Structure formats: structure tokens, C-alpha cells
Amino acid sequence: MRQIPPGGEGKIKVNVNTAGYGGRRIREIVRILTNDKQRPGLRVAVTGFVEKFVEINPPRVVLRGPQGEPVASRVTITQRMEYPFKILNTHAKLGRHFKFNVQELNSSGTSDYVLTVENTKKEAGRYADVIYLKTDSKLRPTIPISVIGLILK
Q1: What is the pLDDT of residues 47-106, one digit of tens each?
Q2: What are the start-end ranges of the E strands in 11-109?
Q3: DSSP label at 97?
């Protein structure tokens, strides 16, 4: 812990994890400890709007359907002009119960993508996983997309 001497000046740097907050306002409280007997602690609110890096529609993959029937979903990944990127490769955290692919769509000078996910689980049951899209962006080198499977009897 760094200390600022009495009567001195200093800077306090605060890092806020904004993952999952794109397109929303965020508010975090920072607690500052002091040796002042009248004000032993301060609470400072940090607020701001988190810009969206990318539009993902729908925001997660839901594979729901009866066992033995084809169950698939498509997700559209639309770049924002302020944050161009390319998807370099993809992988799933577990990848046991589905197969997937990403197709690049070139439209009006930008690259958008379609993620297609198909269930491969034969028996009824639930599962959850994540597909990671590795990008060439320094801001978002990885974009996670949740996969939820519900295969019914």
C-alpha cells in the first residue's frame, strides 16, 4: 500500500473491470483509508458510461430443443466503426456438446461475422460452455460468447 505524507499530494489510480458493461453506465465505490482520526476513511464513487466495443445479437447462444432433432443458433457479430477488428481464430472452453464455425461477411468496407453453433449432444440434459473469439484488437483481444444447451426428452 502506498502512503501520501500529511499535507502532501499524490495520485490514486483506480482500475475498473468494465467487461460485460458495454452500452451501460457503471458505478463503483473506492474506499480510501486515512490516518485522520476525524475522517478515517473516505468513499469515492467512480461513475461513467462504458462504450460498446461490438454488437453481438443475440448476446449468448441458447441451444434448446428435443433430443434427436437438429438444434442450432446463429449469432451476428457487428463491428462498430470506432473499433475495427478481425477475428483471427476461435476455440471453445470445453467444446464437448456442440460444433461451431465463424463466417466473415464483408459489407460496405467493414467485416462483420456470423457465428453458427449446432448441438451435438445426443442425450437429454443441460450444458454450459464459452466460445472465445480471438481478435487482432489490443482493446479486446478476446470476445467471449456464452453457450447454454438444454436438450429435452
Answers
A1: 999 989 999 999 999 999 999 999 999 999 999 989 999 999 999 999 999 999 999 987
A2: 24-33, 41-50, 54-57, 61-66, 72-79, 87-92, 98-107
A3: S
Q: Which three cell numbers stand for residue 70?
A: 437438429
Contact status, residue 54 vs residue 140, Cβ threshold 8 Å: yes
Reading the block at residue 16, the C-alpha cell is: 475498473
* Of 137, 128, 148, the residue nearest 58 (C-alpha): 148
- Report pLDDT digits (tens) over 120-133: 999 999 999 999 99
Report the alpha-carbon distance of residue 135 to residue 121 in Å, rounded: 29
State pLDDT tens for residues 90-113: 999 999 999 999 999 876 666 799
Please calculate the CA angle 71-73-76 and round it to the nearest 5 degrees: 170
CATH 2.60.40.10 region(s) of the chain?
54-152
Residue among 74, 72, 40 nearest 56 (CA): 74
Question: What topology does CATH give the domain 54-152?
Answer: Immunoglobulin-like (2.60.40)
- pLDDT score of 12: 83
pTM, two decimals, is 0.79
